[in-house]
Amino acid sequence: MSMADAIVESYKRWERKPADLYPTPVDATESIIPLIQALSIREDGEGLLQVDRTGMDGRNITRVWEPACGDGRLSRVLEWHGMDVTSSDLREFPGYGTPGVDFLKPSVEACFKYDAIITNPPFALAKEFLIRARSLAPVVIFLLKQNYWNTKGRIPLWDEHRPTFFLPITWRLAFLKEERGSSPLMDCAWCVWIDGMDEECFFEPVRKRVYPGYHGKGLVGAQAGLTEAVDALAGLLLALRATNHGSDPDEI
Description:
Helices cover about 30% and strands about 15% of the residues. The chain is an alpha/beta fold.
């Protein structure tokens, strides 16, 4: 391969992906779980969902929409923690969830009330995704570049949609580890918007937590992980049955 060919291949390796498809590493989602679990949701007198600031009358966040689900890596972590996640994607073959759903179309409405919209939005459409998401749920959580707000042009967006929390991730995320290696260059952060809490923005670094579930990608891989978990549970049940009957589980 000539030097020119090598340069072309290098550019191809690092060029932006179609539809800004950068699957969220599972440890990044796992690390925002404590905050999600700390939030409390309740209905007001008119049946509208809102965050319960007292923590006395609410319930945990359970109903979540992931509108740019890709191969489902972000959704799977939320589901592992017991959330009911509606996963959708604009692409016809995302590998997970419901395909062909344009989140930005006004005709695409929530089929039920969502407690939160949590996603890694297409970078080029992050603003549009944010405005849309905030009209549909009391809690919105986006994965963005750390320097997303470092531009004069986004000051009006900041003034109108000031995040409640800006949580810089303390390690770099390897979105495309298989093709670009494990030396990522991008610093990312979780931005959290909570209705009625936009007067101040709280800053705290996110500490890494390791996701205990399946780390691979795609629906087939997730099903394989589930099968493994079911097999482990079946083995445990056999062992318990053997204990109760005083016999060897291999002889049952």
